[in-house]
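Journal club prep, notes for RB
We'll compare a predicted complex against what the paper describes. Inputs for the FE3-S4 cluster case:
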Amino acid sequence: MKRKDRDPKKGIGRREFHKTAVAAVGLSVVGPHIPAAQAATGGKAQVAQAAASAAARDPGSAGTFGIPDYAQHMLTSDMDGLGPDGKPTGQKATFTGASKADSTVENAAQHQMTLTEEEQAILDGKDGEEKAKLMKILVAFGNAFGAEKLVELGGAPHSNLYIGAPYLSSLIDMLQQCAEAGLKSYAPYTVNPRPYDVYNVQNNPTDMELIYQGYPEQMRLDWVHSKLGAPDLNYRTCACYIKDIGNAPEPGTYVAWCESSAVNYGNSVLGIRTNRYGAGMEMVCALLGKAPLFGLMTDEGRKAKWLIDVKTSKEPDWGVLGTAIGRKVVEDVPYIAGAEDYFGGEVTDDNWHKLKYMGSATAAAGAVGLYHVEGVTPDAKEKGRDLLAEGYETYVYDDKEQLAIIDSFENLWPEPDGDPTTAFIGCPHCNYEESVRWATMIIDALDKAGQEKTAIPVYIFMPTVVRTRILIENSELASRAKAAGVSYTNMCAVSYSGMKGFSERIRGVTNSAKNRNYSSIRYFPDQKLIDIILTGKV
Ligand code: F3S
């Protein structure tokens, strides 16, 4: 599969999502799933930032930086692998699919990638102090992962620096300095959803206080993104690749994305080539238009070390399957067989959500950045089982295994015996078709039961442009759903369900195994969720 040359206009995709010219650059770090309330305890992406900061401070030449004490785990991150029982196995992940878990800091720091004359000149300050620092960070990062060289990026970036929490102030400062120096992303880019919504959901005074205290940097962060190349908040979403957003680079395009679910979907279903970056590194890459070549960007790194043999007697529960795979393979690439029949040979706007929920669960329960589905995803269609690496292992996923995984899902509600209080649909964000399908399912069920309203509030998570499209194209459904208790909201579902204070008083239910993985919310299959939404009982 060949990489497409950079073409910013073409890379944006089917609909122009940003018409404004870009400004750009930055550096930051925050996990896609770290609510402000949890942020103080740290996250995996912070490790990358620590390394980046260390590299930026070091006055020595590329490849000779020292790793400070607080960043000694840079090469393994903080993600533990979990066994089928949900308990840690001790395996660590790097999110690249090319595990460096047994590397030492010293070994990694000795590696030196080859730079072109132009790259060396940038490193030496040809394009100014800010770009030189960015290049130094990028070279240090590439050296740590054993990359041989940098490659040009195409398509458009996607950033998951979306939380305006105090612990990100210094990173936002750096982004601001880059913007003020006139640096720009190589193409207009997309950004994850904001962590809260003050318009479409009910926020009481306590919630507003939490938002005010938890995200004091939100406006500044939004402004900085606007300067760097992501000006329109209506396009904020983690599902940047859906048609209404249009950030879906051509297959084979090198990009540097960092939202785990977007990386996972992009690599697997779009066929793009990106490693799984911690937020901040993707902005360094975006400002330079380059990334180190290693891991999931290479043919070798895209080979599967696991054959997942799906043998369930009927269609698998996609979120549970994804959780099982993530726990089993941690960050290796899985090749999934036995699922082709559920897609009719191709991924469409109506069935993509199966892969979205499965894939995002592999990325959350493990650290999977790429999977192949036999007969469905582009690499698998092209190469078939030649994608299996020598000595691959096999994991059989049958009805018994599915039940065992479901049994391992603990009830983490603050009051385990209480009734559910809130339903969360969509994490990652829903597209137009899925949003309409959920609203229709709820309204149909209410009609059948002779009910006007849902028993608990329902939040369907989607970008604003999708919400607007529903209001225009499906206004009757939208108004009925709203009157019945269904809200369409553009924020991040995990940030909301995990928000301090809110999370401690709600008993949430969801269709997202990813959300279940990161919060106290409980996971249920679609039909069971509809029953809960109507009755208010589990
Ligand atoms: Fe999207 Fe937030 Fe879930 S960014 S994938 S809704 S964690």
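Talking point for the session: The chain is about 40% helix and 10% strand.
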